[in-house]
Design goal:
Layout: H1 3-8, E1 10-17, H2 23-33, H3 56-68, E2 71-76, E3 79-84, H4 93-100, E4 105-111, H5 118-129, E5 134-139, H6 148-159, E6 163-165, E7 167-170, E8 178-181, E9 186-189, E10 201-203, H7 211-216, H8 220-233, H9 239-243, E11 248-252, H10 261-271, E12 278-279, E13 284-285, E14 293-301, E15 310-318, E16 321-322, E17 327-329, E18 334-336, E19 342-345, E20 348-351, E21 354-355, E22 360-365, E23 374-376, E24 393-399, H11 405-417, E25 422-426, E26 432-436, H12 440-453, E27 457-461, E28 466-471, H13 475-484, E29 489-492, E30 497-501, H14 504-513, E31 518-520
Parallel strand pairs: 1-3, 1-4, 4-5, 5-11, 6-11
Antiparallel strand pairs: 2-3, 7-8, 8-9, 9-10, 12-13, 14-15, 14-23, 15-22, 16-21, 17-18, 17-23, 19-20, 24-26, 24-27, 25-26, 25-29, 28-30, 28-31, 29-30
Bound molecules: guanosine-5',3'-tetraphosphate (G4P).
Guanosine-5',3'-tetraphosphate binds next to α2.
Length: about 525
């Protein structure tokens, strides 16, 4: 086993999109190319139907599916590709943010008709915070949509990405002819629901050649003009610029028709980064280091309530991970070993003896882990980049059965460890506020507290706009602020101080009143 070779052949990435843009379809087509699945429809959508806001049974069902689809690995052209799944539903955006800390690059899927949507904007923002290299795939070219140039402008404007098309569409909708692949200098002709076999790809170095008319008829001149324009207007594609997140290549295609997907995959495996270094509070961890390090980015509770164990998903950052070897659990300061670490190959789970940087292993856990935990061979490291964001919805949570207060506390704690929501304890009356990104989580918590822990809870409205983590270089000023605003202060589950702002107006006023205090909308600052 050649460690460096194994490391070099890993590509770990995530696909992100606004719901319905085609993420599941694209994932499935990539898995088909990788031979990881044999039939279409094998990847269950982890989508929660829009109408299901109050149907938490649906969520339970989805939890089962999303364990299976958390990591989908496959081999392609000698490389090991790990796709990390991200929940489509925006109420679970926090889960997606955390998963993004474990990838080395992303593919953003955009629906040609809808353009850049809200969720795409949010997710790309998170990727940009961490300089994650981004490839854009514009999907559903078989449908009429926005003009390609306008769409690129929209992407630049709304997502703040510098784009560089590597393929260019020839018309769209009913008259969609295919794409010209500028990277490979090939013409790929579209046939609906085609398998896109070799014959439909024609090497075409020189677009001025009259044969172009033979293939795409009246669209030939338009293509010539547009490609010339693109070569003139957009910067040349440079892999290093992409790796440095300075430029995002763009592809066009139709996932459901399996069109443009192979070009995307071929280019992806060529240009996407191998496992990248990871920052810790102490130092940069480089994947080639001999010693193993890794962090937990996701925890999944068992869907069977009789078995309380959970799966912690570990991203390996450096060194070789070995089964049954003792590792150091940094937060708990204790040794821990794993007798059945699990890897995921599309639908199949199997126990692994070794795993390499870039790989994700599932660790069976009976409550040892919280999100962000680090494992090492002894070094005390704390990985950066797994912040919590200020929630958007808040409610007081009450224990409805005083006989079950232990279960209530334990259940809440464990659900928070899993990252289902955030918990804030008000300092002056000890009341507990739960903050979430979406309304669905309140029902998830209520349901799971009852079914997994036997505890009953109810909620009371609380009018809050944001929870801001506060800091100051001036300790006295911070103490003074906390004392004066005692009624609005709380601590999060890690003991960090938080200011609860009831409105944007109040927040602005307080910021002016206390210039020495810094207000953060994420827990890492
Ligand atoms: P998501 O994971 O991003 O939420 O999207 P998903 O892949 O589930 O796709 C959403 C819908 O868009 C699906 O249709 C899917 O078939 C369709 N779709 C995906 N790619 C293309 C494409 O290239 N062209 C066209 N025209 N449609 C595409 P649905 O009706 O919601 O579901 P289904 O019944 O087809 O599964």
């Amino acid at each position: 086993m050649d460690f460096n070779k194994e490391l070099g052949r890993r590509k770990t990435f995530g696909i992100i999109s606004h719901p319905d843009a085609g993420k599941t379809t694209l994932t499935e087509k990539l898995l088909l190319f990788g031979g990881a699945i044999q039939t279409a429809g094998a990847v269950k959508s982890n989508k929660i139907k829009k109408s299901a806001t109050s149907d938490f049974m649906e969520i339970e069902k989805q939890r089962g599916i999303s364990v299976a689809t958390s990591v989908m690995a496959f081999e392609y052209r000698g490389l090991k590709v790990n796709i990390l799944d991200t929940p489509g539903h925006e109420d679970f955006a926090e889960d997606t943010y955390r998963t993004l800390t474990a990838v080395d690059s992303v593919i953003v899927v955009i629906d040609v008709a809808k353009g850049v949507e809200r969720q795409t904007e949010k997710l790309v923002k998170v990727c940009k915070m961490r300089d994650t290299p981004i490839i854009v795939f514009i999907n559903k070219m078989d449908r009429s949509g926005k003009d390609a140039i306008d769409l690129l402008d929209e992407i630049e404007e709304k997502l703040g990405l510098n784009v560089r098309p590597l393929s260019w569409p020839i018309s769209m909708g009913p008259s969609f002819k295919g794409v010209y692949n500028m990277y490979e200098k090939e013409l790929n002709l579209f046939s609906p629901h085609g398998k896109q076999s070799e014959d439909e790809t024609i090497v075409f170095e020189d677009l001025s050649h009259p044969d172009l008319e033979k293939y795409i008829g009246e669209f030939a001149d338009e293509l010539r003009e547009e490609v010339e324009m693109i070569e003139g207007v957009y910067p040349k594609f440079d892999r290093q610029d992409y790796l440095d997140s300075k430029i995002s290549p763009v592809f066009f295609g139709s996932a459901v028709n399996n069109f443009g997907v192979k070009e995307l995959l071929d280019c992806f495996v060529e240009i996407a980064p191998s496992p990248l270094p990871r920052e810790t509070d102490e130092r940069m961890i480089v994947p080639t280091e001999n010693k193993f390090t890794g962090f937990v980015f996701k925890i999944h509770a068992n869907i069977d309530p009789r078995h309380r164990d959970r799966i912690a998903f570990l991203r390996i950052c450096s060194g070789l991970f070995e089964r049954n070897k003792n590792y150091h659990h940094v937060r708990q300061g204790k040794k821990i070993k794993f007798s059945n670490p699990t890897s995921f190959m599309a639908e199949k789970k199997s126990i692994v003896d070794y795993a390499f940087p870039g790989d994700i292993v599932g660790l069976y856990d009976s409550g040892n882990f919280v999100i962000g935990d680090a494992l090492s061979e002894g070094e005390k490291i704390h990985f950066k980049g797994i912040p919590s964001f200020s929630p958007e919805q808040f409610r007081y949570v009450n224990n409805k059965n005083p006989m079950k207060s232990k279960q209530f506390k334990k259940g809440l704690q464990q659900l928070m460890d899993e990252g289902v929501a955030q918990l804030f304890t008000k300092q002056f009356n000890n009341r507990i506020i739960i903050g979430t990104v979406g309304a669905l989580q309140f029902e998830v918590i209520q349901y799971r507290l009852e079914h997994e822990y036997g505890a009953l809870c109810d909620y009371e409205p609380v009018s809050l706009y944001k929870a801001c983590w506060v800091s100051s270089e001036d300790d006295v000023a911070l103490r003074d602020f906390c004392r004066k605003r005692q009624q609005d202060m709380a601590v999060d589950s890690k003991g960090k101080i938080v200011f609860l702002a009831s409105s944007q107006y109040i927040l602005n006023m307080i910021k002016e009143q206390y210039p020495k205090i810094v207000f953060h909308t994420k827990s890492e600052y």
